[in-house]
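We examine the record.
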Amino acid sequence: MDKNWDFYKGKKILITGNTGFKGSWMSSLLLEAGADVTGYSLEAPTEPSMFELCGLKHEMRTVYGDIRDLDLLNRTICEVQPEFIIHMAAQPIVRESYVRPVYTYEVNVMGTVNIMECIRKNDCVRSFVNVTTDKVYENHEWEWGYRENERLNGYDPYSNSKSCSELVTACYQKSFLDGTDRNLAISTVRAGNVIGGGDFAADRIVPDCMRAAVTGKKIEVRNPNSIRPYQHVLEPVTVYLMILKKQWEDKKYAGNYNVGPDESDCLTTGQLADIFCRGWKKHTGKDLVWDSVQKGGPHEANYLKLDCSKLKHTFGWKSCWDVEMAVDKTVEWYACYHQKENLVECTRKQIEDFLKVFEQNGK
């Protein structure tokens, strides 16, 4: 790993939701950097899971607990004394939020209340990032990207609960933390749709592609014309860590940020499925096709993009992998899984490849 990531060596970091897809990539990267990582999470949400397949449960300490359990969360932070917290614990699926709206709000809103309450009570925390979503914005189906100062008002229970999470974070900061002598910086980061190996969740296009591929079935694409800002999971993960570090060094960097791909990488779901099929053929030699399947269901946005000018202007950031490379790396990981190859080495190699480009971009 590049020497610039030595900053995290030995640093005490708490990740909520570390057993999930994005949390597993975050944990893998921080462990490679030599950080002292503790997770707070429920058991891995899928079977199989990247957390289990890559042996992360044996490489880091995880406190298995519910983000709604304020007492256990506070005891964990009191014991660990982390300088850095990354809040990723969530109910993250739009369609699931229609089935379990109360649970979704409990986890995504009260979970944020609990983590902010713990930060308020523990002076050890100096840098905090709350991970939300591009879906926090009131979506007008505009052709241009949403900026950080747009109105927050997600449509569905998941999106709306994440809008509320943003408001809770801002309220706690203004009510309890601003104007004090606390050396603490807080940011929220809104990421576009992420893809990558290790995602086994239901109702997501890439895991659906993977499941169809390994079973020899056609991919069923629910909304082939919906446009989304697809990016590899390492794009936002490295941004979270970049902001966590920068605001620790200088609080002027704290704020709200979008992170998403360039305009050219905002594709329809059908186009993404096409790229996945080509990648599967490349890595396995097997053909794969998809069909449009209209099954109805609750409202989901058709058009959603982010304007990432603030992130680019503030940090000189630019994305590392275009969507073709992001899908290729994703398919490569799933092909290793399907062919029972070493997933730890595959994950480590992809992190190394990504960070080479990240450092070349001047971060």
Observations:
- The CA atoms of residues 78 and 122 lie 7 Å apart.
